[in-house]
TrEMBL record:
<protein>
    <submittedName>
        <fullName>Starch-binding associating with outer membrane</fullName>
    </submittedName>
</protein>
<dbReference type="InterPro" id="IPR011990">
    <property type="entry name" value="TPR-like_helical_dom_sf"/>
</dbReference>
<dbReference type="InterPro" id="IPR041662">
    <property type="entry name" value="SusD-like_2"/>
</dbReference>
<keyword id="KW-0732">Signal</keyword>
<dbReference type="Pfam" id="PF12771">
    <property type="entry name" value="SusD-like_2"/>
</dbReference>
<feature type="signal peptide">
    <location>
        <begin position="1"/>
        <end position="21"/>
    </location>
</feature>
Length: 521
């Protein structure tokens, strides 16, 4: 009943749009118009918007070799050719900024009411959103952003300086969240659709997010002192990160009702009436991704992530080379998203995937971040890099298995999926970038496995890590007009129209050569 009640609140105050999910359930779609609501109510909606917006990770999933458009859809020309303009994927800019308006309201209202726990949550999520903006665009409005009519043409801050501020913001958030809960400082409770008001889990999330940010800086020479000092804090014995089973995930009580299903399921799967969504047949796995799973004998995840084509001994996993789009790759001829995410047409009636949690940051990613930091000698831990790496792989396996529609799994893959046995065999396979002992480049193994674990949850994050590390060695689109992958997105046309002086001051931006400050590999 509690989860259903949250949705009644949402439907009463939310403005629902369909523009790529950027403003899904957002209560503050006009950044210059103040809202009048409790911080708890706005927090619920803001958290929901963040999770729903991350669903639309197509561009990252395309450009990091996870996804491809199927042959059943035309278009996607800018994605395939990398010939992008200022009108391309503008929701990556507007979505976080709209969301940030809500978090700003929550933090300010909570501080005014003495609700430090709620203020801490809002500040963590502000850092989360601003990092996405910097990782996509580099310099961006920060210090003058979110000021409404006070600053309608905000100046741009240097991306490097924004990162410094975000790390400080996370430290402040942890201070807020560390204040004991009391009658005057209540927890967020059910208004928190990620952790139900558990401040300890929010601190773990904050530490893990900070670790993500610090590792992004590993190739930046003038950030080494910052990395060392902040890693020293994270290496203290009382520091905790997201642990096994502690995914950051949203669930306000997803229902089999239009607009209230799990947003990933509704976008790429099925409607509340069990019919395929409008984009169901448009997206599929790239051949690069499924070939990697097959070549590395990933017998468990390949069954959870994909559906085979054909029957009996002729069953095959078929992905689409990114850039292709002819009838050879019609959706009916290739492997769609598997039972961890979608049922089949034959099992959709009984499937409950519509109410699965929507993952924002996974425990698998947490372990891979820790593994990399330990392997690089940046973080002190009571676990070795190998132990952390293997925990990351295990969490990827077990999370997918916990989400899967078992009826669809058994009907598509008659052989049993034994996660524990399959995991043990996989990690001792002797295959590079799978078996720790067989991997000469340990960091490459860590990033490669994180790339798999981020599939369908975090395409943008996977693309960002590719830009930082060059891992994995993703092939160019078959329609690429050059020899480079895009290193960033272009500022939206709206910035050149409404904030022309500040946007133009950033210089001539090129998607290949105007790199994000941390992209120094």
């Amino acid at each position: 009943m509690k989860k259903k009640f949250i949705y009644y609140i949402l439907s009463a105050v939310a403005v629902i749009t369909t523009a790529c999910g950027d403003d899904y359930l957002d209560v503050n779609t006009n950044p210059n118009q103040a809202v009048s609501a409790t911080p708890e109510t706005v927090l619920t909606n803001a958290l929901n918007v963040t999770a729903a917006r991350l669903v639309h990770n197509e561009i990252g999933a395309f450009w990091v070799g996870q996804w491809s458009p199927s042959g059943s859809v035309s278009g996607f020309t800018p994605e395939k050719t990398y010939d992008i303009q200022t009108t391309f994927r503008t929701g990556v800019w507007t979505g976080p900024y709209n969301n940030l308006e809500d978090y700003k309201y929550v933090e300010e209202a909570a501080v005014k009411e003495g609700k430090q726990a709620i203020a801490g949550i809002a500040r963590v999520m502000k850092a989360f959103n601003f990092q996405i903006i910097v990782d996509a665009y580099n310099n961006a409005p920060y210090s003058e952003a979110l000021e409404g009519t006070t600053s309608i043409r905000p100046a741009y801050d240097n991306g490097s300086a924004i990162y410094d501020s975000l790390i400080r913001d996370i430290n402040v958030a942890i201070t807020y969240l560390s204040v004991p809960v009391s009658t005057t400082n209540p927890s967020a409770g059910s208004a928190d659709i990620y952790f139900n008001g558990d401040n300890d889990l929010w601190i773990k999330f904050a530490n893990t997010l900070k670790l993500r940010m610090l590792l992004r800086l590993t190739n930046v020479s003038d950030k080494q002192a910052l990395i060392a000092s902040e890693m020293a804090k994270l290496g203290q014995s009382n520091t905790v990160f997201l642990d096994s089973g502690e995914n950051v995930s949203a669930n306000p009580g997803y229902l089999k009702t239009a607009g209230k299903e799990n947003p990933w399921y509704e976008a790429y799967g099925y409607s509340a009436s069990d019919s395929r969504s409008g984009s169901h047949d448009f997206y599929c796995w790239s051949n690069f991704f499924v070939s990697f799973l097959s070549d590395t004998q990933d017998s468990v995840r390949i069954k959870l992530l994909t559906y085979p084509v054909g029957t009996g001994a002729d069953k095959k996993i078929i992905g689409v080379p990114f850039g292709e789009g002819n009838d050879t790759y019609l959706y009916s001829k290739i492997s769609g998203f598997g039972p961890a995410f979608l049922p089949t047409d034959n099992t959709v009636k009984s499937a409950t995937l519509y109410k699965n949690d929507q993952i924002v940051m996974s425990s698998a990613e947490s372990f891979f971040l820790q593994a990399e930091a330990v392997q690089r000698g940046l973080l002190t831990s009571n676990l070795s890099a190998q132990q952390l790496y293997e925990k990351g792989v295990a969490q990827s396996f077990y999370t997918l298995a916990s989400l899967a529609d078992t009826t669809a799994l058994k009907s598509s893959w008659p052989s049993n999926v034994n996660v524990k046995k399959g995991l043990k065999k996989y990690l001792s396979s002797g295959i590079s970038n799978v078996d720790w002992s067989a991997s000469s480049n340990k960091v490459e193994a860590i990033i490669t496995q994180k790339w798999i674990a981020l599939a369908n949850y975090g395409g943008f994050e996977a693309w960002t890590e590719y830009r930082r590390t060059g891992i994995p060695n993703v092939p160019l689109s078959t329609r690429a007009q050059g020899s480079q992958y895009p290193a960033r997105l272009l500022y939206p046309l709206s910035e050149y129209s409404n904030n022309a002086e500040n946007a133009s001051a950033q210089g001539d931006i090129n998607q290949f050569t105007s790199k994000i400050f941390w992209d120094a590999q």
